[in-house]
Structures are given as structure tokens and as C-alpha cells.
């Protein structure tokens, strides 16, 4: 039987992993343990360097003779949406690429039934004549096979002709999944042996190529390992692959019947297992176009050492619902890498470095602090120690510590509607607004109502405290099953002051009227309250018998940082002091500060720091709609509103979070959130504003869900790591 200990020993000794080892790693729920091991191997090869290139994709045509179930890109001749570029148009795109500093053009497209072989050769020759220094990486193995049929040549002679015309290397597309059972279901393309033979021939001719796997559809973990094994065997034979590129399946506008994107956890596992299993590959690429920029940034901690490039106008995944956009600037690529603590290295196609930057140094954690972090007991961390952890190279160790503090696999999420109450509203107007908003959410089963008073904090002439209490009474009469929360301590404090009522007495009345909790407002910044005000307001609420949730905002100035850890940790310690006195805090919301540019790896680090710093607070909440994400919400042609944060939210659970907050019901799908939680190896539970666990029948097992870890895995995710 495989075990972590056996696999770690193999990696340490440089012994090749078996297929059974790889399958074990795909099935484990120990995501960050897997990531730490892959990161260790990656650092041995590349240190902190992460590559990218300035390139441009040119997709010459989407007119194609093939009909693949997974493809949203292809069109038949005369079909609406079909296009074909002239050579002059492609030259113009190549010119734009060169002017932008590109060293490579990436050319792949459909199998056009009317384009002759000579047309492809002229395409290459024209680009190479005008831009002789531009590396042309072009034509998948499927296209090479098609061109060989067009030219009535062997694969070898076809490649020689294309190389003479200007082709420099091959991309890795068209591999999909090698196992024939999967290929029979999704594509009529080449067999696995044909794809491998084409790349073998290219390597024999001295032409480098990449290789890929399209994952996240109907394949099993077994099929993935089978695919990786065949790539590893060919690399043993030829050493001709530059990089392995996992391609996450994009679910829209195709015939597969799959309704969701790949899980972010699965994307990271795919990167990490590839890094560990493909021991003869130097480069593992996290292709941001398909995984999204956020997953790509985390992947740098999971074994990826390349993010591809600027890309510009990639259409194939975009037309299948890709949400990452079609280009990234050199500056943004560098920033994404730097803010992950890595060194951006601009490269050419063959991985020759062209220019590089060094990230701000992140020292190793001192042995004293590391020993404390690895302790199985909650610790009383001081500010200096927390600052050391936040600024050091301790991403995976923080994850292990965060999980040990939270100690179980239960994850909560609530579904609510929020009504911002404005100062000028009368009671009748407020009730009309509440009724309108609740009816909009009726079909999505609202469990909680939040009355947000943030707008009252600076308002003149707001309604009185008694009028607000009357609103609460009417709400409870009309919707008795709803759990009611009031958001904005500052707003409620302001209302009490205006009405000349002591704050603690006002909170006691809220409690008597059936309000379940005082929540932080999504509409105001926590920084508007001083540490003393936060302390006094929460303590007063707790003395009145009201449970509260706090909010700690994490700020990073726009640009390349660094993060403002001191203010974040100072506020955490205020909440620790409050909890030590009253035990009245149910959770702490960790949110990016307004106006900040927080990247996902920084946010995840902040979550883990919060979890270990305030271990006595039951829950660390990562509000689902507040988790930072660079990727937009929707891809081209999609109707499904899957929030981009859903890709990365499960990683927060591995950093110690145990709650996704009170989510607005019209923003996300209940089923989708439960699937996200399950994908990370946790169990999801619905709750209301009063933290009452709701009908457990809502917690579906999703036993038929693909590409998720085993929940009954025989090794604990909370086991101590010593990698």
C-alpha cells in the first residue's frame, strides 16, 4: 500500500514514482502536503525562478473538417462564426507582436478543407522573411497529420518541408487524453500512438515540442496517470519535450454536457502530480489562459515554473468559456510572479533567459518559530513572531498550522439577502424595500436577512432607534422563519448615539427582539474604526448577550507591494484580546481592504495568519464574494454565473478557514458551493445568521462527482509535515 512516507522517501532519494504513487497523489485530500513536495522538487531544479515569454497566438482559421465533442472553436465552411485569415492579416498580427517585444508566435487552428499544403508553407515563409528573428511555434500533431495527407508526404518529410519554410518547434495540443476509451468518447482525432510518433519524429529531426493533457471532463485519475506515463516514456527516449502543459477543460458551447469549470483544487493537483511524476521534464507550465490567473499564481507554490506568456488574442479556449481574457501584459505577468515571492524570468521559446527581476527577499522561518508553528497545540503568538511568519517563505507550513487549529473538515456557508437601510427612509419605505428584495430571493431559499446600517454612520437626520426596532418587529412578524442579523457596528452605534441610548442597552434590545448576530458590513471599511472603538463596541455587545463577527482587512498598495502586514496583525491582536475576555466572537471575516490590490497567495497567507493568531475564535470566514480574483466572472458566450472566486475559495479551507460567510443568494449556486467544498476534501453545511446548522439533507454527498479526493483517505490531512 502506498503512503506519504514511502513517496517522500522516494522523492528525497531521487527514485522515480510509480503509477500507483501518482494515483495515490491524485486521490489524497492532503492538497498542501502534495504542493509542498512538488515545490521542493521544483526548487531543486529552478530555485525561485518562474519563466514567461512575450508571445502572440495567431489562430489562422476555425473552419475545420473535424467534429470533436469538446470543441467550441470549430466551424464548418459557410457556418456562422467561421473565419479565415489571409497571409497579409497574419503578417499584420506578427508585426504587432514584434512591436510589442514578442519573441514567439504560436500558430494553431482548424483543419481547413480548402487550404493547400503550399499555403501553409507560404504562411510560414512570409512570416520568417519579414521577421527572421521571430520563433514560429506552430501546428499541433493533428494539424501535422492533416498537412501530411494534403501534401501526400510522410510525417518526416512534411516536418522537413515545414521546417525549411520557417517552422521552428511544435506546440503540444491535440493530445487530449491518450487512453482510447476516453478518445472514443470525446474525439475522432489521432490515436495516442500517432500523436506520440509525430512528436518522436520531430524530436528525431532536432525540433523541440511541448506536450499537453486536456483534463477535467470524462477521464478518471487512472486515465491521467496512463497519459503521463506515455509522455514520460517518450521523454526518456528523446528528451525532446520543452514543457508539459495541463489544459483545464472549458465547459461551454460544446457537446460534452459538462456544466462547470474544473475545480481549482484539481488544477493544482494536476500541476503538482506532473512535477513529481514527470521527473525527466524540466518545465511544468501553469497555463493561465485556461486555469485563470489566480490558480496560475498559486500553482507557482505547487511545482509550476512557467506561466506561458502574454499570449494576445487566444481564441480556442476563449470560445469555450475561458474567463481569463486573451492577453496579459509583461508588467502584469511580472507582478503576478513577484507578488508570489518568485523571480520573473523572461525567456525565449527554448527557455533561454532574456531578462529577469528578483523578488523581495523572503527569509526562511527561524527554527524556533518553525517548531512553534509545527506544534499540535494552539499557541499564543506575539506580534514579532506573526510578522516573521507573514514576511517569510512559509506558505505550506502556514497551511499545515492553520488546518491543525481548525481541527475538522466541517465548512459552513449561509445564504442571505442584504438590505442597505438609508437614513431618509420611513418605516413604510424601509419595509417596502425589504419586501422587494426578499421577493427577488424567494426562489433561491433565503435563510437569513441582513439589515445593513453602514449608510447611517455619517448620515444626518436618520430614523430613530425606536423606528429601527419597529422595522425589526415587523420583519419578524412577516418572515418569522428568517434568521435576522444587523450589519455595521459603527452604523448601529451611530443610531444609538443619535437616539441618546447607551450602546449596550440598545444591543440588549436587539437581542430581545430576536436579532441573531451583529455582522460586519460589506459596504464599509473596518479601518474607519479605531482599535479602541472596535474593542469597546464588541465588548459591549457581548456583555449584552449578543454574539458578533469581526472583520479584519488586509491591505496591499497597488503595484508590486509590499503588503501592509503590521496593521493587519495589530487588528488581529485586538480581536484576540476581545475573545480572551468574553468569548463572544463567532468568526472573523478576512477581506481585502478597499482600494487594495491583493493577490490570491497574499490573501491565503493572511487567512492562515489569522487562523493561528486568534485560535480561540471558532471560525475564520473568507466571504466568498470578497476573495480576490483577477479572472472575470463570465467567459464568452456563457450563461452560467459561476463566480471566479469559486475556483480559489477551497484553498482558503486548506489555510484554516471554515466558513464562506452569508452569501447573497442570487450571486452563486448552492450546489456549486457544496461541490467546491467537497472538491477540497471537506464537508459542506448550510447555516443561518445565528450559526444554526440547517437541514442536513441539503448536504449532498456528491458520490458521483469526478476528480475529487477520497474522504475516507487513510492518512490524515492534519498529519505533521517534515518535508
Structure report:
- Helices cover 41% and strands 14% of the residues.
- It folds into 2 domains: 22-352, Aldolase class I (TIM Barrel); 392-629 and 641-688, TIM Barrel (Alpha-Beta Barrel), CATH 3.20.20.
- The relative contact order is 0.11.
- The chain is an alpha/beta fold and 723 residues long.
- It contains 26 helices and 19 strands.
- It is elongated.
- Mean pLDDT is 88; it is low at 315-322 and 714-723.
What's the CATH class of the largest domain, please? Alpha Beta
CA gyration radius, whole angstroms: 28 Å
- Give the mean pLDDT: 88
Helix content: 40-55%
How large a portion of the residues is in β-strands, by DSSP E?
Answer: 5-15%
- Helix-strand makeup class: alpha/beta
Output the CATH homologous superfamily of the largest domain: Aldolase class I
Major sheet details: 6 strands, parallel
Number of domains: 2
The fold-level CATH name of the largest domain is: TIM Barrel
Termini separation (Å)? Answer: 21 Å
Total strand segments: 19
CATH architecture identity of the largest domain: Alpha-Beta Barrel
What's a quick, concise take on this entry?
This protein is α/β, with parallel strands linked by helices.
Layout: helices, strands, pairs:
Blueprint: H1 4-13, H2 19-27, H3 31-46, E1 49-53, E2 55-58, H4 87-99, E3 104-107, H5 117-130, E4 135-138, H6 141-151, H7 155-165, H8 180-186, H9 192-204, E5 209-215, H10 221-238, E6 241-248, H11 264-277, E7 283-284, H12 288-291, H13 293-299, E8 306-309, H14 330-338, E9 343-347, E10 353-356, H15 367-373, H16 383-391, H17 395-406, E11 410-420, H18 427-440, E12 448-452, H19 465-478, E13 483-487, H20 489-498, H21 503-512, E14 515-519, H22 531-543, E15 548-554, H23 565-582, E16 585-592, H24 600-613, E17 619-621, H25 645-653, E18 659-664, H26 670-679, E19 683-687
Parallel strand pairs: 1-8, 1-9, 2-3, 3-4, 5-6, 6-7, 11-12, 11-18, 11-19, 12-13, 13-14, 15-16, 16-17
Antiparallel strand pairs: 9-10
Helix pairs in contact: 2-10, 2-11, 3-11, 3-17, 4-5, 6-7, 6-9, 9-10, 11-13, 16-23, 17-24, 18-19, 21-22, 22-23, 23-24, 25-26
